[in-house]
Design brief:
The complex is a heterodimer of chains A (264) and B (397).
Chain A lengths: L1 E11 L2 E2 L1 H8 L20 H4 L4 H17 L7 E5 L5 H12 L7 H6 L4 H10 L5 E5 L4 H15 L3 E8 L6 H4 L6 E8 L8 E7 L12 H8 L7 H7 L6 E5 L5 E8 L1
Parallel strand pairs in A: 3-4, 3-5
Antiparallel strand pairs in A: 1-2, 1-6, 1-7, 5-6, 7-9, 8-9
Chain B lengths: L3 E10 L2 E2 L1 H9 L6 E2 L10 E3 L19 H10 L4 H12 L4 E6 L5 H9 L13 H5 L3 H10 L5 E4 L5 H14 L5 E8 L3 H9 L20 E2 L1 E8 L8 E12 L12 H14 L8 E3 L6 H15 L5 E2 L2 H4 L6 H15 L30 E8 L3 E11 L1
The chains are: A alpha+beta (264), B alpha/beta (397).
């Protein structure tokens, strides 16, 4: 399947936005891990903003960056949200409450506990009535989201925005599900070449699993391995212009997905 | 869209385990709901619970996946010849050409809820707790994929109560894009404390049996269950008619996290999109299985949306009085009820509902009808303003 990239967004420790992130991933600048500053969800009305946690802010921030970079109106695209698990802080709070004697769950926490909470807030923020889905594929969530987005473009849409995000879980969940740091990425993808196309992407489901791509820089490799969504880094590096331009991501069932990048 | 044939389907809910038991419960107007005695939950509500005795541990080689949610999935896979049909499809197409698309809202979160009670003095979770293969949202899709040894694309779709309706959309796209030849599509959700106490905190649990579209409706009854379907491009049966997925429509309310759009705007858009994808006019739809949860706001807004698009003459009902609201599983369960209606020639009425709300305009069926719909629509809407409508119908193969 061939598809086209109009814009890219990234948000992770030391990679704040595509302009800065691209230079690092292209090898033009060294990667310097920096403390992560949670983004402000300024797309949302103030009342909703107060209700959102890191995972929603992360998803909205990268989604907003990708849309803005592509110069597209906020309500103009269908979306595929993908994450390995949703909001760990909310799940942790709810499970602590339910393990206690007073089981009064906060209504806001409850509606924020759904896996599609970021997609719901995205709708409220952008007023977009376009279809939106929210997927989970454990450690392979980004690759699975990319397959879904590619299939949507192949079959029935002109453009789709893929939004991936994962953030650390608090203890005690953190000990059984290790996510080392927050990471979000978004791609504005189109079916055909447009005036704004910056890269072409060929997506192939490998018939036989191949060796997966890793980052040559040790710190970036640590970043990649420490967060399910960060498994997208080899693809993002290729989109930044770094070699190699052909990368392999792991998907479910021990299988792989190969991606061939051609930047314009 | 190209119709996709429902070559096999299976169901397990509190209303019935297996298709025949489900049809019998529907025919006899026998609800699966009962006063809640689930786990240690002390809430004044009814639930649609599958008897614990019916939930055998998962297959020994998949023991790491063992949890209530995957037990319900397995129970469903083992009904109605479903397992055999998926194995035949695996044989026919190869394991890499069969995809798995399962909708779930809370997956196996009950395991985590219980594990939190067993935290040690330092606050750590017990050593026997397995997060990835139970609680994680992907667990149930992973379990189904592993159960059959499939290697085609698999995913959990988790968009609250529209999850397993949207699973049909993903499956249809993957088949149309040539990424697989057949798809196991399903929905599974299980009772847990998060949803029971969560919906309670929102004031959305009925203290009685849920009564969709009733003038006195006062909330939902939560149920658990699973529906599984095998979708293929060609019909399997030797019979002249087969049942197929004809259309899928999806939209977003863009309004509120837990309240539907007051005019049912997103719901209407999803239904319109489903008709467009099936290339059918509204008049072609013989029966609508409503989302019909029994909350004041869902039923009122769904009614507006249906009336705006279909007028007030299309027979419609909600079957949640039988199954309870099975949340992420209801898209698949309700689609299967539509398929049964088409196959066996009936339109379900509505158990528990006594007096249809006079403020609502659509043609709501209270009693079962012995009339065969050729084309049925199934609606599923969820938190986050997510909407999905499916069209199913009889197709000459």
């Amino acid at each position: 399947m061939n598809l086209f990239v109009e814009s890219i967004a990234i948000l992770a420790p030391g990679l704040t936005g595509w302009a800065a992130g691209r230079a690092v991933l292209a090898g033009e600048k060294p990667y310097e891990p920096a403390p992560f500053a949670p983004p402000v969800a300024d797309l949302l009305p103030a009342v909703e903003r107060r209700r959102t946690g890191l995972i929603v802010k992360l998803a909205l921030a990268v989604g907003h960056e990708a849309l803005t970079s592509a110069g597209r109106p906020a309500d103009s695209v269908a979306t595929v949200f993908t994450s390995s698990g949703g909001d760990g802080d909310v799940i942790n709070d709810i499970c602590i409450t339910l393990a206690g004697s007073d089981r009064q769950v906060s209504p806001t926490r409850f509606h924020n506990s759904v896996h599609n909470a970021p997609a719901g807030y995205w709708g409220i923020a952008t007023h977009s009535h376009h279809p939106s889905t929210s997927l989970c594929g454990f450690d392979w969530s980004f690759a699975i989201g990319l397959i879904e987005a590619a299939a949507q473009l192949q079959v029935d849409r002109q453009e789709v925005m893929l939004v991936g995000y994962d953030a650390p879980y608090p203890e005690p969940l953190g000990s059984v599900r290790r996510v080392a740091h927050p990471f979000g990425a978004a791609l504005l993808l189109t079916r055909s070449h447009t005036g704004r196309t910056i890269a072409e992407l060929e997506v192939t489901m490998d018939a036989k699993a191949k060796a997966i791509s890793r980052m040559s820089d040790a710190a970036l490799e640590q970043l990649r391995a420490g967060n399910p969504c960060a498994r997208s880094l080899p693809l993002l590096a290729a989109l930044a212009g770094a070699q190699p331009q052909r990368v392999t991501l792991e998907r479910d069932a021990g299988q792989t997905l190969s991606l061939s990048v051609r930047t314009f | 869209m190209q119709p996709l044939f429902l070559n096999r389907f299976a169901i397990a809910s509190s209303a019935g385990i297996g298709l025949d038991a489900t049809v019998q419960a529907l025919g006899e107007m026998r609800s699966g709901l009962a006063p809640c005695t689930f786990e240690t939950v002390r809430l004044d509500t009814f639930v649609g619970q599958i008897a614990d005795a019916a939930l055998a541990p998962v297959r020994a080689d998949l023991a790491e996946f063992d949890c209530r949610n995957n037990r319900i999935a397995q129970l469903c896979l083992q009904q109605d010849g479903f397992e055999q049909s998926v194995r035949a499809a695996r044989e026919k197409y190869g394991p890499a050409r069969v995809g798995v698309f399962v909708g779930t809202s809370t997956s196996g979160i009950l395991e985590t809820e219980l594990a939190y009670r067993r935290r040690d003095a330092s606050g750590a979770l017990p050593a026997d707790f397995r997060y990835a293969t139970t609680h994680n949202t992907y667990s149930v899709a992973w379990f189904v994929q592993s159960y059959f040894g499939l290697t085609g694309p698999s995913m959990a779709i988790s968009t609250a109560c529209s999850s397993s309706a949207k699973a049909f959309g993903s499956a249809a796209r993957m088949i149309a894009a040539g990424l697989c030849d057949a798809a196991v599509v399903g929905g599974v959700d299980s009772l847990c404390l998060t949803t029971l106490y969560g919906f309670n905190s929102l004031g959305l649990l009925s203290p009685a049996l849920c009564r969709p579209f009733d003038a006195d409706r006062d909330g939902i009854s939560i149920g658990e269950g699973a529906g599984m379907l095998l979708l293929e491009k060609t019909a399997l049966g030797a019979t002249a008619d087969s049942i197929a997925l004809l259309g899928v429509g999806e939209s977003s309310d863009a309004y509120h996290m837990s309240t539907p759009h007051p005019e049912g705007l997103g719901a209407r858009m999803a239904m319109e999109q489903a008709l467009m994808s099936a290339e059918l006019p509204p008049g072609a739809v013989d029966y609508i299985n409503l989302h019909g949860t029994g909350t004041r706001s869902n039923d009122a807004t769904e009614d507006k949306a249906v009336c705006a698009l279909f007028g007030n003459d299309t027979p419609s009902s909600s079957t949640k009085g039988w199954t309870g609201h099975t949340l992420g599983a209801c898209g698949a369960i309700d689609a299967i009820i539509c398929a049964l209606a088409i196959e066996r020639g009936f339109m379900p009425g509505s158990v528990n509902t006594r007096t249809v709300d006079p403020a609502l305009g659509l043609r709501y069926l209270l009693d079962n009808r012995r009339e065969r719909p050729d084309i049925a629509m199934s609606n599923a809407f969820g938190f986050g303003g997510t909407n999905c409508s499916l069209l199913l119908g009889r197709v000459q193969s």
